[in-house]
Amino acid sequence: MNSASIKRRESRPVRVGPVTIGGGAPVSVQGMTKTHTEDVEATLQQIRELAEIGCEIIRCAVPNRRAGRALGRVVEGSPLPVIGDVHFDHELALMCIEQGVAGVRVNPGNMKDEDGLREVYRAAAERDIKVRIGLNSGSVKRRNGIEVADEVKDEDVADLMVSEALSACEIAESEGLRNIVLSLKASEVLPTIAAYRSAAEECDYPLHVGVTAAGPPESSTIKSCIGIGTLLAEGIGDTIRVSMTGPPHYEVRTGIKMLQALGLRGPEGPEIVSCPTCGRCEIDLRSVVQDVTDRLKDHSASVKVAIMGCVVNGPGEAADADVGIAGGKDSALLFRNGKKIRKVDASRLVDELVAEVEKYE
Amino acid sequence: MNSASIKRRESRPVRVGPVTIGGGAPVSVQGMTKTHTEDVEATLQQIRELAEIGCEIIRCAVPNRRAGRALGRVVEGSPLPVIGDVHFDHELALMCIEQGVAGVRVNPGNMKDEDGLREVYRAAAERDIKVRIGLNSGSVKRRNGIEVADEVKDEDVADLMVSEALSACEIAESEGLRNIVLSLKASEVLPTIAAYRSAAEECDYPLHVGVTAAGPPESSTIKSCIGIGTLLAEGIGDTIRVSMTGPPHYEVRTGIKMLQALGLRGPEGPEIVSCPTCGRCEIDLRSVVQDVTDRLKDHSASVKVAIMGCVVNGPGEAADADVGIAGGKDSALLFRNGKKIRKVDASRLVDELVAEVEKYE
Fold first, then answer.
1. Exposed site from A98, A150, A220, B58, fewest CB < 10 Å?
2. What is the band of A137 on the pLDDT scale with cuts at 50, 70, 90?
């Protein structure tokens, strides 16, 4: 890997409405609504909010016919391509397709009716919509609630997921479906990484990457960033979803920031680089960072702002950024475009730094 | 990579007080005090708090002689091995060594006196203490405030860091020092990953891994988990520090959770696996997760608790965990050791789940 960019795995392009997954298209960020899908207004409101912050594809649960019937109106009002998420009942997947979704997600591991599932693949192929074949670690161990692999060892979960997923894809291809996206999520980081690495080698399907049931925001951010991040850094992953027991916009924001951290998505607004502070720091850096972040939250220009507590890495990082400060005793040095421009008093620090950033439009 | 465990890179063992870095020792978590080191009581208080939550090595800034003189008392009172962090002035590093530190960290890129630095290496070798040679991306571009590599392209930063670091190690070895730990932190994720990958191949020094100046907690967690996590998942990294503009215990906790997510450190207390919720969920899962987390915060047994909103992945994940629930309409199924034990009313959910977890000591 070159340190400035990631060489991405080659995958076949699959269209999801206006978005392409795979085939060299930018890695897209997906969200999932947490409303009841049949509450069309609440669902559309949530989709609009997620679209606003940069979400590119939305998925809605379709657990029953009521949700299935409502989906048409969601599709119609949604600014984003809509994926219907279906389990157990292939009729619901057919219903989604009739309602005009851009794609459906099925987990072949819990579809009771195999012929019915083939019908879903044929219907999707006919309408040229995509199907995500999404296995979860939970479902390779049990099918329809029955333990099928009692003795599956943890280290075999990934292999089992991949082989089951590829068999499912073979069936889908035999029904004429080409628009397949694959996902292999486990609730643990290592089997997730192992499963995607192996699938990445064994097929050319674009991969939807995520860690499932990752828990509340803090632990999900850690597990998702390690799991998804490791794969993305290796060039694996065409679309991502961060899953979190928390507000849906947290999930989308974390996904976007992850792509930005890896240079897979451009910056949006200022980026703050700041030091952890230590015994060297003579200014209240944490509150400077908080104040600057608050003051710049609606600033749209992509400016790199370094807020450094001392002269050790301060001038280096500050000079590398578009605008930066390196703290001293009761004052700080202000940098712009790599050049020291002046010394500012600690009391004027936030104002002067923000003023410099605001010169970037 | 086997999905159940990481094959770690081989590195030479380096002792830091009672802790070994490298040589197959468990990956250790480091913290850094954010107090003024000369405030011995405040510094020791912070060290004790970090030790309490699982920090294994502590670093203190030594920016001046006052801090250097105080370090002896910090070393004496500290429950953790203490590393003195020194920049610019080799005399301060010698002072740290005299004060009985377990190690010093120097950045050869900002040490003005090359002969002085050699003296530090010799003194460390004599006392058998470790030296971290810690380069930062900022310092390869400028030395003592002067731009030395005006035209360094982003993609060359990693290469430059590695070659400068290895030259510095050669000098240290020529002075008889063997206890060398290397770090190559950049404030961006990709050059950080690239630099460590390349160093991992080119030497056998244990690696101290981190992303520098990673910013406030949210963005630092994302950058650190991708940067450090990717390397750890590849077996690279012998000791880690998460750097955050925020409280020091956040840094340590994130580091520990990262190791746990990768199976590199055992669990401490309950682990909550919970679903993101979607249109399928009929219970207020987010508040269940919050309540259960709060109620179990002092529980010490390592129990895996799955809190799942519905029957899709619910039974699979819940059955995989030690204790779990899969939500239904106004009620949930309770699982223990993979077996469904009973249905519980939504109003009794938290109580019954916590009671089941508390059976594990």
1. A150
2. confident
Question: B 179-208 residues with CB below 8 A of A?
Answer: 187-191, 193-195, 197
Helix (H) or strand (E) holding B316: helix B314-320
**Stated length of chain A:** 361
User: Which residues are within 8 A (CB) of A176 and not within 5 positions of it... i.e. 6 or more apart?
Assistant: A121, A122, A125
The number of domains in chain B is 2
Whole-angstrom CA distances from A227 to A107, A197, A323 are 21, 11, 33
Task: Check: CB of residue B188 under 8 Å from CB of residue A5.
Answer: no
User: Could you tell me if A106 and A86 lie in one domain?
Assistant: yes
Q: Determine the pLDDT at residue A242.
A: 97
Say how far apart CA A9 and CA B179 lie, in whole Å: 40
Across the strands, what pairs with B273?
B306
Domain end (from A209, A232, A261): A261
Q: Is residue A213 part of a domain?
A: yes
Contact B313 A136 (CB under 8 A): yes
Please name the amino acid found at residue B236. Answer: I
Q: Do residues A148 and A233 share a domain?
A: yes
Question: Looking at the structure, do residues B203 and B339 belong to the same domain, yes or no?
Answer: no
pLDDT at A149 over 60: no
- Please give the mean pLDDT across all residues of chain A: 92
Residues B138 and B183 in one domain: yes
Domain span including residue A320: 271-357
Q: Do residues A279 and A151 share a domain?
A: no
A-chain residues within 8 Å CB-CB of B33? Answer: 278-279
Residues of B whose CB is below 8 A from A279? 33-38, 43, 60-63, 67
pLDDT at A145: 46
B38 and B178 share a domain?
yes
Residue A266 maps to a domain: no
Nearest chain B residue (CA) to A264: B190
Which ipTM did the prediction report? 0.92
Would you say B358 and B298 are in contact if contact means Cβ atoms under 8 Å apart?
no
Structure token pair of residue B30:
């480091």
Residue B150 pLDDT grade (very low, low, confident, very high; cuts 50, 70, 90)? low
Helix (H, G, I), strand (E, B) or coil at A348: helix
> Which of B1, B244, B316 is the closest to A142 by Cβ?
B316
